[in-house]
Specification:
Layout lengths: L7 E7 L4 E7 L8 E3 L4 H34 L2 H7 L3 H4 L9 H9 L15 E2 L5 E2 L2 H12 L4 E3 L3 E2 L5 E2 L3 E5 L4 E5 L6
């Protein structure tokens, strides 16, 4: 929108409706505008595209607001239905969605083949007893654990090109149940 030309397009039909004429209106109150010759048809396209994009942005903003409202209203009701039951009832219920703690536990317990440590590498261990490669990774892992943020250490990810990558930490966002990558090399 910043690169769009000033004004908006007015289209008129000349010669009994057989020929279109384009005008650029830049001043408020101007109903006629400045004629745009057919040699500058690209300029007319830019003006009309700008109007289209402005209207599209308004519609998208309304839709985003509606979606956010729907998500806020629907939010935690289903998980809360199970979690507010007494323990005796929860033992008998198969919930529609897993409670956060169960989901996090299943996610954390997925087995993988971590990268091996060099025989002469120093040994650093987290509060959970995991071996990591540096003191800063101990601090990060312990902070994630202390704040109850589920994580996986050096869990292998396959990239689109088929390469295997081992990010330092994969963190699970329990609210969205999406995974985020944390690479400590940038933090050092």
């Amino acid at each position: 929108m910043k690169k769009a030309p000033e004004g908006h397009l007015r289209i008129a039909q000349a010669h009994g409706g057989r020929k279109l004429q384009y005008y650029n209106i830049t001043d408020r109150g101007d109903t006629r505008g400045t004629y745009i010759p057919h040699s500058q048809l690209q300029f007319a396209r830019q003006l009309v595209q700008k109007q289209y994009d402005q209207n599209l942005i308004k519609i998208l903003r309304r839709q985003i607001t509606a979606i956010e409202g729907l998500l806020a209203a629907a939010g935690p009701q289903i998980p809360a239905l199970y979690e507010t039951q007494c323990r005796a009832r929860r033992l008998l219920i198969t919930p529609a969605t897993l409670p956060d703690e169960q989901y996090a536990e299943l996610w954390r317990n997925v087995k993988c083949h971590p990268r091996p440590f060099a025989p002469d590498a120093p040994e650093f261990f987290t509060a959970r007893g995991e071996r990591v490669r540096s003191k800063s990774e101990v601090i990060i892992a312990d902070s994630l654990y202390r704040h109850k943020i589920p994580y996986r250490y050096e869990f292998p990810l396959e990239l689109k090109n088929g390469d295997i990558y081992h990010p330092d930490f994969l963190c699970l966002n329990l609210r969205t149940r999406q995974v985020e990558v944390l690479i400590t090399e940038f933090l050092k």
